[in-house]
Design brief:
With 267 residues, the chain is an alpha+beta fold. The chain is built from 7 helices and 14 strands. The strands form 4 sheets. A 5-stranded antiparallel beta sheet has the order 7-6-5-8-14. The protein has a 5-stranded antiparallel beta sheet with strand order 9-13-10-11-12. Strands 1-2 form a two-stranded antiparallel ribbon. 28% of the residues are buried.
């Protein structure tokens, strides 16, 4: 039977609960040491896009950005950690030191049958999601109906998100004002429009922002919008649609998301 390996996942609190793993901490440390996302990516073996996506995910998970861009100059721009970013690194390594002995003991006990069953359960609970957008939000209000409930979320200053879930789901998740949730949105569910051309539509959520990145593939194009407060949202559209939209980095745009296309999760 293969040797069972137990890898800890630390939970770091910063005005709520946000999960950060060792790979993301290494990226933060590389940004601190090298002063740019591209150099940090090379240092930890990531492409610029993967490093940029990691920074965007970190900034989305916490209430305040961990990394901010530095204005460009003669030698170009860069990036630096905020005070919150430094605190996350320090907290992670504190937990790492304190838990090292405990993890070593657990590792030695994984050979017996009860521990093997426990390790299988832990693997099942270590959920990963294919949703490109995972946004940490705070519940502002819940309007319950006989079948569905409307949940209004605070995403960032001036940025709200409306979600429709079943009344049963709202009760099971314990949704109430002040509860922290993770809003999951598939990038293919996000519609895009130039900011000046958004008309009357049925999509409840209109998230205005600036195109921060665009990557064209053979069939599809990926856009990332900076929607403020250190938050971003990604959208996948066909390459033909991307050409029709004519959106490029720096352009004002709007991400449109139906309230029923947002999945909520709690920890």
């Amino acid at each position: 039977m293969p040797r069972i390996s137990l890898t800890p996942q630390f939970t770091i609190e910063d005005e709520g609960v946000s999960r950060v793993g060792a790979d993301r901490i290494a990226l933060l440390e590389a940004i601190r040491d090298h002063g740019s996302i591209s150099a940090a990516g090379r240092a930890v073996g990531l492409s610029y896009k993967a490093a940029w996506d990691g920074v965007a995910a970190l900034n989305n998970l916490f209430s305040a950005p961990l990394v901010v861009a530095r204005p460009g100059g003669r030698h170009g721009g860069g990036a630096e950690l905020t005070a919150e970013g430094s605190e996350v690194i320090e907290a992670f390594h504190l937990l790492e030191r304190e838990l090292a002995a405990v993890m070593a003991e657990l590792q030695g006990r994984l050979g017996d049958a009860p521990a093997r069953r426990a390790s299988r359960l832990l693997r099942n609970l270590a959920m990963k999601t294919s949703a490109r957008n995972a946004l940490r939000c705070i519940v502002d209000s819940v309007t319950a109906g006989p079948v569905n409930a409307e949940v209004d979320l605070h995403l960032a200053d001036g940025v709200k998100l409306a979600v429709i879930v079943t009344a049963r789901s709202a009760a099971d998740l314990g949704l109430a004002p002040g509860v922290e949730v993770l809003a999951l949105i598939k990038s293919s569910f996000v519609l895009l429009a130039p900011a000046a051309e958004v008309g009357r539509i049925s999509a409840r959520n209109k998230l205005f922002g600036t195109v921060a990145a665009r990557e064209d593939g053979a069939v599809n194009s990926e856009f990332v919008l900076d929607i403020g407060g250190g938050k971003t949202i990604a959208a996948i559209v066909t390459k033909e649609s991307a050409e029709t939209l004519g959106l490029h980095v720096g352009d004002a745009a709007c991400a449109l998301v139906k309230a029923s296309h947002v999945i909520l999760a709690v920890e």
